[in-house]
Target: Aminopeptidase N
Amino acid sequence: MVRTGRRSAGSRLAAIAAALTCVVGLATTGCTGDSDGFRPGAADAGDPYVPGRGNGGYDVSHYDLDVRYDPSTDRLTGRAVITATATQDLSRFNLDLAGLTVSAVTVADARADHRRGDGELVVTPRAGLPRGRQFTVAVDYAGVPTAVDDGSLGSGGFLHTADGAVALGQPDSAATWFPVNDHPSDKASYDLAVTVPDGLAALSNGVPGPKNSADGWTTWHWSERAPMASYLSTLVIGDYRVVTGTHAGRPMVTAVAASLPATGGAARSLARTGAIVDFLASRFGPYPFDSYGGIVVADDRIGYALETQSRPVYGPAFFTDDRPNPSVVAHELAHQWFGDSVSLTRWSDIWLNEGFASYAEWLWEEHDGGRTAQRNFELQYAATDWSQPSVEPGRESMFGTAVYKRGALAVHALRRTVGDDTFFRILRTWTSERAAGNATTSDLVALAERVAGRQLRPLFDAWLVGGSAPTLP
Ligand SMILES: [Zn+2]
Model:
């Protein structure tokens, strides 16, 4: 993510419904089935940066979503078929779902009891699901989706726009338009069919499928085969100039809001997507997904760009005065390796995403004839507040300077210490060994030490979390 706007003060208090919480090993009141060893899954992922988000007891492998959206009424109708595997003997489990009304739930084609909590859909199947059992959950739902006003973290969720809608946001947004295990630790593949009035575009992640029209409505299909964190899903509906082509043998779909200039800064920046991807691949290793693209929206409430998988979404403010902005494109595309393919396990490690994406801006700038990475490093070093840590920055600072700029400094300090050959070997080993998975800062340090054949923990500590300016390498 990159932001353009100012952050507002305040914070969201996302309460966990205590009634839904059932602690493993405790005979908590309301935990059904304890006597036979079956127990409810946890009601959140246990990540303090996103209280209430995510769930436990199962692992999703695939979301098959079929949604219909009518901009004239702002009403969304959906059916989600979720394929998951029980990771414990499961009597009951939660999905995250914000607002919307659920009309029916089935588990393995049998009607299941369901009730709602605060941002939760609680599903009780007819019979317990043994650990290791794969099952499908089908949820029929409808309603007017809502935005997420995340206080200091900015606004996202499902935004109704002048010509359609945009569903977007980090650290969470997906639960505003489909039931989901809404934490990046549970990645899954996606198929999406989205039906909108004829004439509007309906854009999402991955490879485009066929478009079918009937009775004034058009259904667009999208498929993301690589595991995707839920916050990296997006849905963009409206009047867009969509350009469909191929790059390196894979589909490339870019779209710019029709209200923005046809050959302006936004369109010219997106047109560089292929060249920037190829440059980054030469540094980071093969591009991890089977499609490319980007979407520029016109709604000023999107004051950021987000690395939605295979197809980042950019807010209009990056292209003010119609200037091109390849830097933000380089940042979001770098996330395809750092954040999207190799995803964080806990949000406190978000520097693993933003430090590398910020560093990619320096790499691209140097490649594009601008300032060298070394010069950017020196300027940033002089400007850094070393009292702010990159790791465990605190929820309110998860999009702060220490995560982005200090993270980039740490990456360049590593490069200076181990040399270019070893540095880029570390990066390529990371993106290949950890592809399609999740990782932590400790995983990165261990991998870097293994590839470099030397101790690097003190270096990472000094540059990421030390309280004073580290010695220049
Ligand atoms: Zn970013």
Notes: DSSP finds nine helices and 26 strands in the chain. The chain has three domains: 37-233, 239-341, 347-465. Residues 1-2, 331, 335, 353-354, 357 surround zinc ion (CB under 6 Å). Residues 6-33 have pLDDT under 50 and may be disordered.
